[in-house]
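Write out the 3D structure for:
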Amino acid sequence: MSPLHFRPAHPGDALQVAQLHADSWRTHYRGAYADTYLDGNILPEREAVWTTRLTAEAAWPVSATTLAVQDDHLLGFVHVQFNTDPHWGSLVDNLHVRTTQHRSGIGTQLLSHAAQSVLHQAASPALYLWVLEQNTPAQHFYKARGATPSGTAPVPPPGGDPTRLTDSPKCLRMTWPDATSLIIR
């Protein structure tokens, strides 16, 4: 088995990223997203999103996506959008790690890569993300990495379609005023 390595994503990675994204949603977003939506064919929609995001002209320099890869298998990814909020800074819009790889350190390393990107490319060192209120394991993970809970908001419906939500789920903003604290030395 080759060592784990991290690299920037490119358009050819869209399908693998979309597959991991869909799998992660199906596992961790139940109760917030409607089962009918999660059990449906969400892969084409996710692939379209990631194809657009990973197109170099559209993505750089406003965002960066880093992949965690081992033996050509995608184990996790992080996508950060720079300068999305004047107060909170840059947004970690997605951080997903294969369920079989949870607690392996990949998520921590991906956050470190996101922080490095922010410190090199964003106007502010501040970093934040949104996590489902029901996803307490993820909240514990972020708090253990120094995040501070800083408010809640309604979960935006995927694709803007409110029928894809269950009831009125909330998400919690997790913040880091200075992404330097996330850098692994």
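The chain has six helices and seven strands.
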